[in-house]
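For practice. Any example?
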Amino acid sequence: MLRKLGLRAAPEPRTPWVSAVDFASPEPLSELKLFAILGAWMEEDVIAATVANAFAQGCERVFLVDNDSSDGTVREAVAAGAELAEVFRTEQYDEVLRLDIMNRVVREQSELDGSEHIWWLWLDADEFPHGPRGLTVREFLEPLDRRYRIVGARFINHYPDRVPASAPGRHPLDFQPLCEEHRLGCALKHRKHSLQRYDRGGVPILSDRGFHRATSEERPLLEPVEAIYLHHFPYREEDVTRRRLALLCGTDEHGNTRVQEGDDAADGMVPRFQTLDAVYRGDWANVRNYRPDGEFAVANPIEWSQLARPEDLAVRRWYPDAQTSHPRNP
């Protein structure tokens, strides 16, 4: 009302945190490095494949931040080539603490390395990125203009529809072609911005919760129009997935749970736990899923080959006998 009466000035327009730009004549960096930062909790079944995929996508080093997993997560990750950066212990899921630690590891390792430019690939243990057009992530980054410091990801959520639903050491895409895209986030609807570049002497970039966005005094951060793909596999072998989500979202003998209502995990992980029965029987009408406006709707998965462009379907593997289809569960 005061503004309408001319008694208060209109607020200054807010600069967006990220902006997509297409440079006609890109000026790429003369050299760059690609590292991965990986956060995990109780991911023994999949983490070796996650680490192997990061290396297959061109990462030179993979750093693990583990939330004190009591299974073989750390063992499997290190055996696959990851470097254990830090282990932290919490009684409850704490995304704020997790991101504080991961941001610190990125800063410290970047400073120790001494390189001018390091692209960091931020990953959860069930995320498998690749570049478009059959490229690895590194191949996608190399010709990018030096003014880009962040890259968005097309977030592809996968569902099991056959047995087996996954296998240790294999890319889950071999077993789970059924998926849907979650479009939510920046103007281009990139749900996550998993690639962020450290520049020695440059303005810092801090990854925000879930790697959905980042904060920086450099505003807006520039991203290319073309994105990488980020495949998400929260549902693996049924018994393993049920056991992990029960530890995360269920209650113990004292009525306590790691995920508290209203925290950063509850909106995504708890509905996933609550609709597991529907997921594993393919009852998509009863599987809760995000809509672009952040509310829940039913899942509506399609085949990966129907979702992406033909030139984007080639996904690099780290083993020679990759299979792209498996028998459906009778």
